[in-house]
Amino acid sequence: MTDTTRVAVLVGSLRTDSLNRRIAEVLRDNAPEGVEVDIIDGLLDRIPFYNEDLDAGSAPEAAAELRTRIAASDRVLAVTPEYNGTMPAVLNNAIDWLSRPYGAGALVGKPFGVVGATPTPTAASGRTPTPSAPRASPARGSSRTSPSPSPRSRSTRPRTPRSG
Ligand SMILES: Cc1cc2nc3c(=O)[nH]c(=O)nc-3n(C[C@H](O)[C@H](O)[C@H](O)COP(=O)(O)O)c2cc1C
After folding, report:
1. 87 Cβ inside 6 Å of ligand 1
2. From atom 24 of ligand 1, which residue's Cα is the shortest distance away?
3. What is the CA(119)–ligand 1 centre distance, in A?
4. Among the atoms of ligand 1, which is closest to the Cα of residue 80?
5. What is the DSSP string of 98-127?
6. How high is the pLDDT of residue 1?
7. For residue 150, how many other CB atoms are within 10 A of its CB?
8. In the structure, how many helices (H) and strands (E) does the chain have?
9. pLDDT at 30
10. Are residues 9 and 87 in the same domain?
């Protein structure tokens, strides 16, 4: 048994000057004794979109590396911006890869937390900062843009991945 807690951090932004990457670095640089932080950076954009065909044999190299690093961690933290009221595609894609194989993905059973930063005042309100962003409006049976949905109509939190 080891006294070290390993925390893998998934950074949801690819931007060079990402605020969220800076937060991840502050967390790593200020981690208390006994906590190791592995910032998984420069990897998510090398992972192809999840496709069961690609996952039939050995996974693509970057996806395999992601799985190995998450498997070696005790906990996982996503440090991410909100994109259009939800998580950025690179983070969602990483979670898709980590949720498979069915029932045995590297994330299964691991505590998963999310923190994020944005300069946008409407963050986490359920309202997108860009009214032109397309949003489906199933209640009306149409796909036209819905500029002011109910603030509680959707969650902005990535859900703990479930297999299946
Ligand atoms: C495609 C896109 C969608 C965005 N959607 C949201 C949003 O829904 N809510 C929000 O608060 N900010 C939104 N933003 C603003 C980002 O949160 C902001 O740019 C943030 O600084 C990005 O994080 P980073 O600094 O780590 O790259 C969006 C930005 C982009 C590029």
Report:
1. no
2. 18
3. 8
4. 26
5. HT-STTT-TTTT--EEEE---S-TTTTTT-
6. 52
7. 10
8. 3, 4
9. 98
10. yes
